[in-house]
Specification:
By secondary structure, this protein is mainly alpha-helical. The protein contains 16 helices and no strands. Helix content is 73%, strand content 0%.
Length: 307
Amino acid sequence: MDSLRQLSMKFLEKGELANFRFQKDFLRPFEHTMKRNKSLVIRDMIVRCMAQMVSMRAENIKSGWKNVFAVFHLAASHQDEKLVDMAFQTTTIIFEKQFSSTVDSFQDAVKCLSEFACNPLFPDTSMEAIRLIDLCAKRLAERPELFKEQTAIEEQVMVADRVWVKGWFPVLFELSVIVSRCKLDVRTRALTVMFNIMKSFGHKFSINWWRDVFNVVFRIFDNMKLPEQQKAEWMTTTCPHALMAIIDVFTQFFQQLAPVLLDDLFNQFCWCSQQDNKDLAGAGLDCLESFVMCNGRSFDTDLWDKT
């Protein structure tokens, strides 16, 4: 492994030409070993190798970022605090100092942060990972042009949609993953950040993007696979929180969203109000009332009849 590290450091002394993927192939043994070898000593060595490459050769890494994030994604779910901390500290440095160079591997990067957030053993790391996902959204809003450059994989994606496919959707989707997998305090923070991103940057979204957003959002209410005790907590805490946040977003962008998504919202209100859980049923009715109070002045006759 040390010999491979030395070879890799030598290999990364020179940058990678555009549209080439030699680094990804050359660094794959680190990812493969991290996945197959369960030895903590070996895994610690691999993470240290990656940390050294990032520290000393970050400006030359291009396609190799995919391997870096794959290794740290595997480290993120580990039970060893030192291993997780070392991987996360390096990941933080990447996002804060090398954001623009990681765009081609952005989906892998955000997925890596999501895995850190979902490790129940280290709640402080979970919260910090969510902060970094929020930071990604702000950087994305500041420099959307970085995500519009075409690669061979994205030839069929419209230029205007690349920033959505490569940027906004992975951010919002991974936050929804955190909501679905984590304990109450972490998932509440992820839910808050997810809807804050919608409210802060939703004016940049096309209606097709909003359709994708709400497909993700409504999955929050799909908790049928949870154990009964956990399901009861979910319905009492996360579902009402999500409903109120949806109303806030819908009210802010009512003219844009109502023509295409209002039926889905009303269906969600009906579903909530029909549940056996009294808290969720009450929340569904309260949210419908709040929605009408906030937006009723914009209703036409057909919309009042539907309501």
